[in-house]
Predict the structure.
Amino acid sequence: MKPHWETWAKEAKTEFPKANSALLPLLHRIQGEEGYLSSDTIADVAHLLDLAVPYVESVVSFYSLFYQRPTGRRIIHVCTGLSCALGGSDELMHRLEAKLGIQEGQTTPDGEYTLLEAECLAACDKAPVAQVNLRYRESVDLEAADELLKGEVES
Ligand code: FES
């Protein structure tokens, strides 16, 4: 555990007195520093907030923007929800896998891209939907898939 995480935990608890409310901002802040949330980090956070480790693990695994493994600089989520599946998300995923030379769940060897599935991204009327870091890309046909790989990095 990094010493300043205790300070961050205190700050989160000051702003959000209930531990499970302080959890998300603390996880977000630590992931911002570490890049992802390892098992050790999850245990540290549970300790800092006096929460059970399985509870913290369940929160981390629930949210698609928390990562339990190192990721690339650009994280591409492809929605695989029903509307997007009907709109061609399988083809989109296969196109991105072929272009990047990786499978879903993997990161390119240069650390540039991580390709992940996502559950419904709540833009079903614009299927198929992808998300590059925090930016949504809607109605992504195969041509637009190539454009995804040219975009700027956003936090
Ligand atoms: S199913 Fe893809 S955004 Fe809802």
Notes: The chain has seven helices and four strands. The CA atoms of residues 114 and 144 lie 18 Å apart. The chain has two domains: 4-62, 74-148. Residues 79, 81-84, 120-124, 127, 129 surround FE2/S2 (inorganic) cluster (CB under 6 Å).
